[in-house]
Specification:
Pantoate--beta-alanine Ligase, Chain: A,domain 2; 4 strands; rod-shaped
Length: about 140
């Protein structure tokens, strides 16, 4: 007469196989969570960059050929830096001439106080070469 059931060896092998499978699932899940967190911080930086670029493109307070920087309110450990330069000009442009200006924006953030990450974007707008003020060289 045969007894129904599993031997101790069969139970141990099944437990070992299940342990390996569960470990693999947990490792895969933790990697997915890390990737989702990294992508979420990148998406947030991209949204901040688009918003800041829109503000810069509409601003009439930007230096014609220079740099400006700042920090984002409500977003700790993050900021931006913009460089403005003439991109396309006419031959021998003079003061008051209209040119195409390039705004290079770099957004930086430090997720969880870790390594600094950056995102670079550029925008273009029409600008006029500044006319020197009277009495200034």
């Amino acid at each position: 007469m045969k007894k129904a059931g599993f031997t101790l060896l069969e139970v141990m092998v099944a437990t070992l196989i299940m342990g390996i499978a569960v470990t693999g699932l947990i490792v895969g899940l933790s990697q997915s969570v890390r990737n989702a967190s990294r992508l979420a911080s990148y998406d947030r930086a991209a949204a901040l960059a688009r918003s800041q670029m829109n503000e810069l493109l509409l601003s009439d307070q930007l230096p014609f050929d220079g740099e400006i920087e700042g920090r984002f309110e409500g977003a700790p450990n993050s900021g931006w830096r913009a460089v403005t330069k003439p991109f396309e000009t006419q031959a021998n442009p003079g003061p008051g001439s209209e040119v195409l200006e390039r705004i290079a924006l770099q957004v930086w953030w430090e997720p969880d106080g870790g390594t600094r990450r950056t995102l670079d974007i550029a925008g273009y707008r029409s600008a006029r070469i500044p006319v020197p003020e009277a009495g200034r060289p």
